[in-house]
Amino acid sequence: MARRSAPPNAGPAYYGAPTQRRQLNDPNETAVSRFLREEVWAPDKLPGNINILTGVAVFLGGIFAMRNWGDMIVTI
Question: How confident is the chain (76 residues) per 10-residue block, as mean pLDDT?
Fold first, then answer.
């Protein structure tokens, strides 16, 4: 049976790690704006941040609903 392999000089058959884009550091940028740019609005971290925001919103919405309409749930 013939061996099936990649053609010669095809390179690796896997994808390497994504290359890091170097951003210029602005000397006038504050620590808060650098944190927001690198941790909150970064495209690779945005899905996780949206999940955290959704969880916090559901939690606070549940507290709000129980404080306003919780007496309708409890029957004495």
Answer: 68 64 77 92 93 97 94 79
> How far is residue 28's CA from residue 38's CA, in Å, rounded to a whole number?
16
Cα gap 54→27, rounded to integer Å: 34
The DSSP line for 1-70 is: -PPP-PPTT---SS--PPPPPP-PPPTT--HHHHHIIIIIS-TTTHHHHHHHHHHHHHHHHHHHHHHHHG
pTM, rounded to two decimals: 0.59
